[in-house]
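Colleagues,

Please find the record for the two-part complex below.
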Amino acid sequence: MKEPLIYELSVTGREGVKPPALDVPESDLPQELLRDDLPLPEVSEVDVIRHFHHLSHKNFSVDSVMYPLGSCTMKYNPKVNEVAARLPGFTGIHPMQDEETVQGALYIMHTLQEDIKAIGGFAGVTLQPAAGAHGELTGVLIMRKYHLDRGDTKRDTILIPDSAHGTNPASSSMSGLHVVQLPSDARGNVDLDELRKVANDRVVGLMLTNPNTLGLFDEHVEEIAEIVHGCGGLLYGDGANMNALMGIMRPGDLGIDVMHFNLHKTFSTPHGGGGPGSGPVGVAEHLVDFLPGPIVTIDPALSEEELPYYTLKMPAKSIGRVKSFWGHFGVIVRAYTYIHMLGTAGLRRAAEHAVLNANYMLSRLRDVYPLPYDRICKHEFVLEGHLPDAPDVHALDIAKRLIDYGVHPPTNYFPLIVHEALMIEPTETESKQAMDYYCDVLLKIAEEAKTDPQLLHDAPHETPVRRLDEVKAARKPHLRYEH
Amino acid sequence: MVYLPHTDEERQQMLQAIGVKQIADLFQDVPEKARYPELGLAHPLSEMEIMQELQFLADANLNAYTTPTFLGAGAYRHWVPSVVDDVISRGEFYTAYTPYQPEVSQGTLQAIFEYQSMICDLTGMEVANASHYDGATAAAEAVIHAYNVFRKKRHKFIISPTLNPQYREVIRTYTQGMNLEIVGDEDLTASAADVIDQVDGDTACVILQYPNFLGQLEDLGDLIARVRAKDKKTLVAVAVNPISLGLLKPPGDYGADIVFGEGQPLGLGLNFGGPYLGFYATTKKYMRQIAGRVVGQTNDVDGEIGYVLTLTTREQHIRREKATSNICSNQGLMALAATVYMSALGKQGLHKVAALNYHKAHYAADLIDQLDGYTVLRERPFFNEFIVRCPGTVAEINHFLLNTFEEHEIIGGYDLGQTYPHLENHMLIAVTEMNSRHEIETLAEALAEFPEEDRL
């Protein structure tokens, strides 16, 4: 059912939530600075609630359906996290309050810094970055500054495998660095011979996603670290896929110098329809001084025995602040809650089951959908959404047909190195029944692709809108309500 | 096991289907020496235990909503109507992801379209994006946006000394590898008008703030005219407090090219600094170089109206290293909160909130100005934040307000000397609709009682 824009519900003179009455004398207003009109909608509180409820019904979400978007880790978002983050003692703190009045909040941040250091095998952590891409930018700037600080000024190149997220090259070029793309070998690993050719004294570092976006653990991670370090470069870890490895291994132990984590993927905080995320960055000892800040530390002078006093401090050679204040505190509280409910064993079990689930789904689909890299996968796997006996059917058609069966499609057309990619990440919180249903549907769609391809081309059939004209949207941008 | 649904039997069935004996067999490619480290995390807690711990930690903080508070400086204590949290607590919104599949994301997409429309209306601009992380990162994106408008041929950026110090820091952090000349704030005693004299043919953008970080309303029309007189092509970007625009003529009406700001006042809690919302708007002329996600209206195959992510050819997943920015998300849920806030208050409500802020701040300024030893700096008009010259250090006065004055706890203003050395012993006081007359009068009373022996 069509839901009008909130502007179309507007009735001149209608009021919604009423602010309090003025309880002080009025002052003169600067007439020449005042606006003539504020063209916002005029709706009642009931109008607002019904409108946004109607809109919410038009979304698929993790709370309603299986949502196995590859590389996004759409796991269940525990409800206790939401209750925790909404405690008034957290939502009500002003970020510039005297540190003495926010020790509870600083304790949580400090503990989460320590937890992430332990999980990643790092010596320092910043919680400031707002998202994964923001963490990448932070990490690349740290690597750049590390070299400059040593007087090594000619390094200007970042090496990025062709399977990497698009944010890797974008973050590198934002940092003023030149990107060299590395091909993958036949097993989906970084091609070591190609890496050796370009590993030289111009290299700032290599950005490695491991497991990579094919869902495969790079079997040469130690050799890669050796080659990159051998030419004086640093090894960056893209932690987007850390859900496969929590408690299984620490990236810092395998030579990763700097890595971002995604609290909204690995540590169960909700994706919020696009954000807010949180992208903490962990670093090895030699990079600790370059972290953005401020960072929570313990002030020994003000600490008493058994009662540490927490304070915010800027690292000595910091790249600078990457956002306002200290980070997405509301997200930090949720991740803290999750980690402290799972503990060491719980995190490991979560990773193990994320990998078990992905391999189980792969085992059910591999005979029907082409599998370009045939190995034990980690938390996700990539199939070709192009069936040999249904040449006119594309990954997009399969994705859209899945919607008709009431499940969210996987990531499609990424990674770019797989033809018509379908990238599936079930996560550990899906039941066998949910995954069996998803696989049954995918197998049925493969049949439909042969017998009735038009059914797929026309999908989805039952959604509030059907396939949308994206070309028109881009050619004639209509980006706001016109009064 | 928390959040894991499988029974032992199901696990066995799955392992069998895969063709391995045990889960550990799935990790043979991880180097053995690094496998299964001891993380040493704290003992896991049940839901009941973690909530008891968190309640204790929450109680260890002083809640600014239930304490008289006069602290602003970039984050503001405003009333958040109940409808806001009700809507953003809906799982359909908060457990969805970026709307990659528009047919099953029309709720998120239409809400963003409405958000973009409201940001345009509020700022007086033509086009808004789906948001940035916060006001500071929006400032950095404004610099990069202008750099891209000039195809990286202009390298000079002038930032007003009265732009939020954190925004100035983040601009420098973001651009440290870009070889840009970021100038304007060398002399922090200067005004925006002073630094505009540096505009020349290599200047891509001037970045102003209105009301500025010190709460003042500099003459925006005059400032923009001065930039244009120096160089017609230089862009002007203006950071704004969105609540002030309930009352004030928006920067778009003065001809600004980019208007951005911290959206936290629009229905987001203080949350110790985040998550907040960077709103961002520009003109049609410059929309194709904008960063971030943008939602557009279009039609489906049946002609029905629907919404999609659009102008994606600027973005990282297509352009990779040539993208206009690395951003691949927005502050979706925070933008939704702001949309609900602006809808719920609406045209009249937002105007009233802005007027309450203005009148209460001026009432507070009048009271404080009359106190012995305190002077309100009034060379420029202000909205809801103003500068007070104090008879002692701000740290000591704030300590007195918080810990000593009668049995009240009062959170005082921002110590301007921290970031503007010439404003040592000057406090930036913010007053919003949440400061009752009683709170304001109590503050004045407390300031008056700051002991003589601690005065300078």
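Chain A touches chain B through 198 residues (CB under 8 Å).

Comments are welcome before we finalize the supplementary table.
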